[in-house]
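Worked example 4.2. Below are the chains of a multi-component assembly; read each line carefully before continuing.
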Amino acid sequence: MINAQFPLLSMMLWLPLLGAFIVGLSNNDRRARILAVIFAGLECLITLGIFIDFDGLQGAEFQFVERYAWIPGMHIEFLVGIDGISVLFLPMTALLTLLSIIASWNSIKTLPRLYFALLLALESATLGIFSALDMMLFFLFWELTLPPLFFLISLWGIGAQRRSAAMKYTLSMLAGGVPLLFAILILALKHGPVTGNDTAQTMLFDFPVLLNTELPAPWQPWVFGLLLLGFAIKAPIVPLHTWLPTVALEGPAQITALLTGLKLGLYGIIRFAVPFAPTAATQYLELLSILGAITLLYAALIALHQTNFRRLLAFASISHVGLVMMGLASGNLQGIQGALLQLFNFTCIASALMLISGFIQQRLGTTEAIHLGGLAKVMPRLTSVYFVLMLASIGMPGTSGFPAELLLILGTLFNNPALGIIALIGAILNAAYMLSFTRRAFLGPVVHAPVAKTQDLLPRELAVLALPTLLVIAVGLCPRLILDTTQHAAEAWLRHINPHTNAIKSSLGE
Amino acid sequence: MNGVIAFIPLLPLTAAVLIAFGNFSGWLTGVETERFSVKLTMSSIGLVCLLALATLLNALHNHSLDTPPVWHWLELPDFKISLQLFNSPLPSALTCLFALLLFIVMQFSINYMHREPGFHRFFAILNLFAAAMLLLVLSSNMVGTFIGWELAGLSSYLLIGYFQQRPMAVTNATRVFLTNRIGDAGFIFGLGLSYSWLGSLEWQILQENIGHLTSAQRNALAFSFTIAACAKSAQWPFTHWLARAMEGPTPSSSIFYGGIMVHAGVYLLWLLQPLFEQAPLMMLIIAAIGLITAVYSFLVGLTQTDIKSSLVYATSAQVGLMFLECGLGFWQLALWHLAAHAVVRSYLLLTAPSLMHKVHGSPIKPVSPKLAQLQWAYVASLQRGWLEALIDWAIIKPVRGLAHDLNNFDEHILDRLIGAPLPAIRRISSLAQFREQKLGARLDNDADEFAQGSGLAGKLTQWCATLFQWFEARFVLRNHRKSPITIGRQLGHTAHKFERLILRPRNLVLFVFILLLSSF
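Applying the procedure described above to all two chains together yields the following structure tokens:
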């Protein structure tokens, strides 16, 4: 155990920002790249250290907590800490950023210093979202992800309409921020009187305290609805999903990999929306699972009709979001554990597939199926890695997609067999769109001259893809690597939303 | 002994992983290294044969049904999935048979596949298949069986699409996998129901606790597993995938669709024997499915013109008979039938390429004249009963149509309704933008408004912005053609006058009086 006084989380939060400044101010593009990799690598080590040092048995408690006064007049503090739900995402965020930086080594020609600086700043803000325990601090980090993303998409996008896409993304996210802020203010104002503190302390943003005091019943649906709306835009859930396919098509693939890999919206629903208003949430769980079912089927069917790899991946990721929502809403341990495992999968599978699409785009200038075909012959390595990840995304045993999907489907099924059937139909459709795209783009004869002359994965690119692929297989063979870490936090989560009935008993349907 | 059983599926899996990794990293390619793959494969499958035989002998002697779990795969409180293997006679006997068949077919493939470009890939997949099937047969846990079930389907997909450059092979592989996926969904559903009703994922506990279930529950459980069995064993209405599966190399067709995988459904029925025996309705249904498949396959098989297709229909007819036997309660017979058929059909499919050589001088017997004269039957048989067309029409076309409609809805209605902002300045101001426009960005626009947007949110913002701007321009800024500064100055003067007026002492006293009066 590292000395408890050591501000490890603060260091984790500030290091990429420091790196961003140093990289941005360096006078040489090549040096900037190397510095960016060094900082991202260091950050990776720090987060890995936190992950290893994290005590899984005490996963329900917040660990590495740091508390500094920030704006005392409004009781806003710099309060950070992690528990079993969030600890997983720190190393994954750091890893994904590192991979993104290495993947964009050569593909970024204009203003590389600014690009890498913005990426590091984005990493800092994202890690902040996962570790902030003060609601205002959380909201600050939440909004701080927008400026770097706006510039990353609009300046380095690969589509012709990247400006518009960046604007669409930013405006959607700002629109999602408004209900979040309202919900946070309601929470802060309504909790002061309940906690019985003196009148001066009417505003309260401390997440653990807010969590343990019950919100007055009339306010619960409001808070739940507002938080859900805010996070649903980010997740995204149908019908608020339209920004993701646009960004996937227009934005740079490495950045889209971050967007599809880190499901901040789902994290927000798990962390904030449901626990803050448990009574309302249990009341509206049905609604949540129906929303999830609609998202699952709607996005899967549209994905069936996509011809562009990046748009297909965007819809596939939306469809998986639907499945996670269904698992969450099942309110049993299988569902929530499956959801957390699937969130881990997003960071490995969805983002690595997106990086692959970036590599194809860089070589051939397109990811349209009609311009591809027969990639397996000319790019055997890329195809092999793609195959493993594709199989993981359709939930093949031996990859981490299988335990996650199994848990999600079983959780849904225990809760409601009819929804279980929908989840299974979703699984069939998942396989349908992934395999038919594989057939069109990777298999069959080579028909286009540029494809025939293209180059297989370079060692650098292979290294980028190898890590997530190996992780996918390792977790597939031993899902306990992830599940044991989240176990206690997940149980506490269930107890919190369902204090009267034993959560595990209800999962048995008894 | 218990730990040793685990090596039966593990050995081929290791061989598969090694060959696949060697092929991927580049040191296991070409003709020179064929020997390595062959040695690895043959030694692993040979060892598996010996192990299987030892396990069978052991199982016959001491009837301990359970072996300790091999691998705790997934653990939640009260929900544990561990890989656990059977130590009972029948699974061991089937393991023995399958391992032997695999050995023979692998030996056959060495020469058959020699100098093929995908030699190593073929052996890697065949090893994966061996591991999957052995796990399927041996696992005493439903999830373990399902893992084998799914991986067998995957290796079947990979081998049907073995000739990656042939569009037909690839299309068929995709189609077969998706058909099988329906069965997998049935399997998962049955598995989930079993857990939520019986609280266990062990076959044995399911077999022993059938009595606790209501008859509706028994039927539902049996029905979902029947879907899985029918899909895997190519029973009606899934029969058509088997003919599509013949695109792969002959040895793989022999072992997948003649010898082993096609019988997985029958094995699944046997595992659920106690369940079916207490669900008479489902017994009737599987008997009917078996009968329909047998008759259908016989009729379609009569008009097949190539040897592999006619063997395929013979296979599905035989497996249909096994389903019929199970449905009628002759479980023992069905198993004997399975074993005998696996051996014979593997042999027939292996020798299929040399058929011409063998039947030379002894022509195939024509069908009876009575049957031959039925023209409609001939057409129906030739069209394979329109089964595939029917499924296309009933399932695939509507799903595709729905996907098409939803895509249109998403692109043209939902996306526009949610809206997207457009850049505020859209004139071409630089060379870069000119290039962008050439690439397709819509930068030229005659309306140069301050704010623009599309969709509900965008338009609303735009209208509000236009309205406010108009208001601002007409009323606030351009009031009576005076500049805002003049207006401000006038306002200031007026306020100053007002203040001086109020602050005179008599007025102040007056105000105080008024206030006092009004308060009383």
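Take a moment to check your reading of the output against the notes. Confidence is low (pLDDT under 50) at residues 423-429, 446-450 of chain B. Chain B is about 70% helix and 0% strand.
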